[in-house]
Design goal:
The protein is mainly α and 56 residues long. It has one domain. It is 27% helix and 0% strand. The chain has one helix and no strands. It is elongated, with a radius of gyration of 19 Å.
């Protein structure tokens, strides 16, 4: 369903998945600062839960 209404200052929008974008930006900032490596195993950083890799 498509509506042809103009957006105003009062128009509400769903945030969607903006947290993924912000999280990615923060991770890349840590990589740039040398505090994190994209090649490291994620399980080295997780404390209470481990990523379950497939045994394939």
């Amino acid at each position: 369903m498509s509506e042809k209404r103009s957006a105003t200052l009062q128009t509400l929008f769903q945030a969607g998945s903006i947290s993924k974008t912000i999280n990615s930006w923060d991770i890349l900032k840590l990589v740039q600062e040398g505090k994190l490596s994209l090649d490291d195993d994620i399980n080295n950083y997780l404390k209470t839960w481990k990523f379950p890799y497939d045994d394939v």
